[in-house]
Amino acid sequence: MKENVRDSDGESLDGLDKEFGFLWPPWRNYRYRYSWSGKPRKQPHEIQHNKAADHESVGTLCDDPHGLTCSFYVAKKWAGTKTISPYPTFEDAILGLKEGKVKSVLIPAAYPLINTFIMDYKLRVCEVFLSIIPALVLVAIDGNMPKEAEVIYYHPATAPLLAEINVPYWKAVPVTSNPKACEKLLLYGGKAIAITNALCLEFYRLINLKTLRDGIVMPFMCFVRSEAA
Prior knowledge:
This protein is α/β, with parallel strands linked by helices. Helix content is 18%, strand content 28%. It is elongated and about 55 Å long.
């Protein structure tokens, strides 16, 4: 019978490559004890987990008065009764964190510039979790799929979905949030379309031309100030 080797925490080390020191599958490597330098890795119980105080107040993107962004929707479910502070951009939320106005900031992994926050030495990620966001939809003011659109409004996080739009458009205009995409659409009128979420679709009573993504499982990162801040 093959021996099932375990570490001091009782975790199986089956699949350990004796020559290179890797566990298979790769995601198990965080349990392995030593880095390439030969120095002991931090054990799981030594990792700095979030504290309740980190989430006494949470900042995230919400630039409309009705809380229609995906981030605000998830923050309400995740933070419960804690204070949630809306910000017009994620950058503004991070600035609020650095200035001590909020204890943490919640950002979806789909945000294209999240790497700048991850690399910021004044910040650290204290928690990562998964949450289903509202459906992402292509909308218009009326129910007729236009043969051609003059403009499409979208948030940069949804930019990959532009390739799936089966309506020719003259220009694509990025906006700060899904609600803003709807506001721009309503102001423009005529031959305009937008990518937004199901919350906005219902609130603004728009027409769903196409469901682009139905219930994405989105990773969210919670940022707090690092000890170096």
